[in-house]
Automatic annotation (TrEMBL):
Principal subcellular localization: cytoplasm
CDD domains to which the protein is assigned, alphabetical: ASKHA_NBD_MreB-like
SUPFAM superfamilies xref list: Actin-like ATPase domain
Name of this protein: Cell shape-determining protein MreB
Keywords from the UniProt entry: ATP-binding, Cell shape, Cytoplasm, Nucleotide-binding
Family to which the UniProt record says this protein belongs: Belongs to the FtsA/MreB family.
Single annotated GO MF: ATP binding
Binding site for ATP: 23-25, 168-170, 216-219, 296-299
UniProt-annotated location(s): Cytoplasm
Keyword set includes Nucleotide-binding: yes
Main function: Forms membrane-associated dynamic filaments that are essential for cell shape determination. Acts by regulating cell wall synthesis and cell elongation, and thus cell shape. A feedback loop between cell geometry and MreB localization may maintain elongated cell shape by targeting cell wall growth to regions of negative cell wall curvature.
Keyword hit for 4Fe-4S: no
Amino acid sequence: MFKEKLEQWKHILRNDIGIDLGTANMLVYVRGKGIVLNEPSVVAVNQKTNQVVAVGTEAKNMLGRTPPHIVAVRPIVDGVISDFEVTEEMIHYLLNKAQSISKKILGPRVVVGVPSGITNVETRAVRDATKNAGASEVHIVEEPMAAAIGMHLPINEPLGNMVIDIGGGTADIAVISLGGVVASKNVRVAGDKLNTDISSYIRNEFKIVIGEKTAEEIKVTVTSLLLGKVSLETQARGRDLITGLPREVVVTDSDIRDAISHSIERLVESTKEVLEITPPEILSDIMHRGIYLAGGGALIKGFAEVLSEEIKMPVYIADDPLTCVVRGTGIILENIEKFKDILIADENNVSNKTH
Ligand code: ADP
Ligand code: MG
């Protein structure tokens, strides 16, 4: 009783904040307010002074337009934290923004979603960075688990749930039952790889070099894995490999299907590999209940259909796939007792009974 009252008081005095630290996008949820921030995971750093000059949307707008001493970096590459200091600055920025939206006296309680491929050292770094940024309590959750919670899948029941979260750097394929990951795989084939597939294809086929932003635009506008439907096309502008001058070409959905076919195949194969190591009872649940897609890659037109055809199981796209993880962190914050077993424990706060 007393404990409950104390929790209620704490909720009045401090914010509950959920963070999705994605490789491409970072999102922040504040309990009672909803998603308050959704920006690219980019930080601009001045290399002369080693100072962070911009974070998020502001930093992304600088990409490719900075003087040589300012570099825009994505500190979480391929689901691995490549730069701890910059990641810490990023977390600072996110917490400060969230705290300025809803002012409270105590330091916030924070749930952070991290890519499932990250190591213990990286997990500790995220935890420390979040504490340094003023959090009073930090809980870490693996993103595929948070995504499943965000989709309201019954992850705590003895029932197989399968989630594929295709982000920027990595795709997380996970089978979850009774609050635990039963089988999983983390592959470095996701949105960024499709962008480089598209750039290389255009370079080889049309002999022009396109920028990263152009590749991304082409991907979002003309990718379709569905044959025989309306054909899509777009103009792409790049630099001619031979003359060095700008040139425009027309790129169609058929070009893009060629460009990304190998990566799509790898995603399908990886899914099969996870199914192969899934225990039979759980496999049968998944055959009935289907697979759920989250992350920006879930929006690749026709991917759900292609996957379903290949593995002979239903495949569904989550509602608003880009916000599943952060909404999941919000649900965890509201029911922290129910979900405490799925959170990655803080080694410093776990009492070691063998001592
Ligand atoms: P992360 O969790 O790694 O930050 P997200 O889940 O935010 O990644 O997804 C970002 C990726 O999704 C980017 O590579 C982006 O290009 C891709 N993406 C977003 N919308 C679409 C779309 N409509 N079609 C294909 N890819 C998309
Ligand atoms: Mg993600």
